[in-house]
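Page 42, continued from yesterday. The earlier attempt failed because a stray header line got pasted into the input along with the sequence. Redoing it now with the clean sequence only.
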Amino acid sequence: MARRRRISHPGIAQHLIQRGNNRQVCFANEQDMLIYGQWLRDYSAEYGVAIHAWVFMTNHVHLLATPDGINSIGLMMQALGRQYVRYFNGRYRRTGTLWEGRYRSCLVDSAEYLLQCQRYIEMNPVRASMVAAPHDYRWSSYRTNAHGKPSQLVRPHPLYQQLGSTPEDRQVAYRALFAEQLPAELIEEISQATLSGLALGNERFKSQIESLTGQSVQPGKTGRPARQSKASGTDQRFILL
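This time it went through. Structure tokens are written below.
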């Protein structure tokens, strides 16, 4: 069966997962994470992608991002993946693939799911029992979103900006979102939507995406996408991640 065509649309946020092949390590140490973060910053700026949240785990990466163009995220991930594989293979004297095929992604209904998805991403190290609280993990966007750590990578989503009238107010409100754990059903919903290339949102949002793209974003629907009209349209310097 043909794999599902990846869906992207300018201005609509996406949750992305990039995994090491067979769950193998893709970051052997913090230096690897720093290098990857520098290139993510560079390529996201080059291709017009706003990064709202991120976490680098030992064998995978999560990103929440909004593209300026329909191909922005694909071009960013392709350039980033190739550059990092060359670096990783050279440093560790290995050959062959590093990533588990294509990155996985889903479109995110900002109104209902965007901040939930940010929490999902930044709580990854806690769910993996690596740390007791998200602020204890250096390699995520939590310290920027929740405590105002300066960053050249994170570009806050408008919904985050609406949490308060000042940076301090927004950080307080954002930290309050983490007072309760995400429900297990929501964690599963985010995970399955991303791994399956579906849409994360309510029925209205999914219908809007299908109308925009001509492709099903709900489980259980197979076949060719509907026809659309022509009108549809290694630098070692320190970097603030």
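Notes: The CA atoms of residues 110 and 159 lie 8 Å apart.
Reminder to self: strip header lines before submitting.
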